[in-house]
Amino acid sequence: MTTKTMMKAAxxxxxxxxxxxxxxxxxxxxxxxxxxxxxxxxxxKKGIDDATLVVEAxxxxxxxxxxxxxxxxxxxxxxxxxxxIAQGAAVIAVPNWVPDSQDExxxxxxxxxxxxxxxxxxxxxxxKELGAINYIGNEEYTAGxxxxxxFGRHGRKNVICVNTVPGAQNLEDRxxxxxxxxxxxxxxxxxxxxxxxxxGDPTAVAEAIKATLLEDATIDGVITISxxxxxxxxxxxxxxxxxxxxxxxxxxMDGAGLDRIKAGTQLFAVDQxxxxxxxxxxxxxxxxxxxxxxxxxxxxxxxxxIVDSANIDATLAGAAAGYR
Amino acid sequence: MFIPSKTLSLGGLLRRPESGTFLGLAVVxxxxxxxxxxxxxxxxxxxxWLNVAASLGIIAIPIGLLMIAGELDISIGSMVPAxxxxxxxVSGHFGLPIAVGVGAALALGALVGLINGILVVRxxxxxxxxxxxxxxxxxGLLLGLAVLITGTTSVSLKAGPEAxxxxxxxxxxxxxxxxxxxxxxxxxxxxxLHLSPWGNWILAMGGDRVSARxxxxxxxxxxxxxxxxxxxxxxxxGLSQAILYNSAQVSAGQSYIFNAIIAVVVGGxxxxxxxxxxxxxxxxTITFAVVTQGIYYTGFDANWSSLIIGILLLGAVLLNNTFxxxxxxxxxxxxxxx
Lengths: 324, 338
Hints:
By secondary structure, chain A is an alpha/beta fold. Chain A has helices at residues 2-18, 39-57, 73-86, 99-111, 123-130, 140-153, 169-182, 202-215, 227-239, 255-263, 274-291, 312-320; strands at residues 28-33, 61-66, 91-94, 116-119, 135-137, 158-163, 188-193, 221-224, 247-251, 268-271, 300-301, 305-308. In chain B, 72% of the residues lie in helices and 3% in strands.
């Protein structure tokens, strides 16, 4: 008993001594985001890191709260919002992947007097409904429509939309958009949901896609919800010997994908400019809470943009620097 | 083994195996208080790791008991989402009362645990392999049935006020009510392991199963009951997560396998079985939760967080092992009286 009491006393003493020095300064911008080793969120993080320079010049700090994995994306993000509240954040930037799970946490933050800005997922409507500062990102459904229409215009009639993080609202909307966008062009699209545990496992994704393509010979297009999955899909298509027949596309892109577009083995990529999302989310959040500045147009759309053989060269330059 | 002494001395307390775990926790807590400041050490900061520890703890204690008894159960990775999806589909998609959903989820847990237990005692297959098979079987069943019934892999669930109060509320806006369920589970399992005859049976089984059976302990029945308890606990955590977050995901449990084993090992349970305590498991769970959540309160770049988590966990386990060796090899000085 005595040991425990002594230790408790020592801890209390240390805590009161440190009470004045919080490790995180005033005006802390808390950003909830995906894993740092996720190629898409690595670009978002680069945008956040660049905006951090501005925030630190103003005397504030930025704290990036990242998910460990995408197994329970809604619940984990809600927990991180609550952690940000506990840290006394001045403003929180969070993607609203699973509104059912996260809306309560966002409202709790606002009730605690912390404004919230949505980025990457959620949409303009959701931001207005929650009273968030703004929404920066893609309108996922619109992006899907653009992708589906592009497939249709290029003569593809049966497209599968591979979703490796099922349950995330923004990704479900993408596939729904593809499905609706291709119909006016006379095509059809179905979703292929893979369990979130295969996210980041390229072999599992490649094999699943290859098996689906071999099993149904009428499929002539594949679109994936992430650039990494597009790499796996390219491998799967090649292993199945279907390279000429299947048109590949992806939401978001990376170096390998851009090389494929240049070489002609990938048809296009839908770009939502992740660097801009990270950069604008942090700088807008900081400007709002520090100086009361806000962009009048809502939502602030960073996409969708189509990258195909027509504009590939300009994109390659940005990709080399890690911005695209 | 706990040998009661006439007086409570500092030395006696330090020589209890759990003190290694407690010191590991104290060091880790001090580390994050130093770097995390007053935010981490405040009640709201405590909520971050208490919430994580609660869900993990409810699963870790039966897993720890199974490990003490010499078995492993990794099917909990699929039982957590199975529990939450069953509850969400029954009560959210089909609209049946929440009690039916909760009952169905727990019944599924009991069934899978029963299957695990029977397979382990009847066949010579190691429990790791049996539960690995169940892990995949339940995962596949879950994905297939979810897409068949609902067309998607995540289902939303709007629970009524009573269910929300018992299983899904945030007390004071920050503490999950799961914390109280965890405390209740810890007290229950602490009683079972340390104060009831079944606890002795579990420790004996882990030490030497054949001798235990020869001594008259019903090892088969006990193994099956333990597997049922671990599966039901996992299903319970799953359904409480579904009620708490208003939605269920098909794949939301893989991390529990590894995290539960880490929490249990940090808590002093031997991987080979026969040794451990509920207090140790609880402290190990808290240590793990503090390490993984405390990182957010420090100013460290998120890129280094995994490195820091790994180093701290390793340090905690090494400290634990050192203290256990000291505790087990202590011999009182002759002539000092005891």
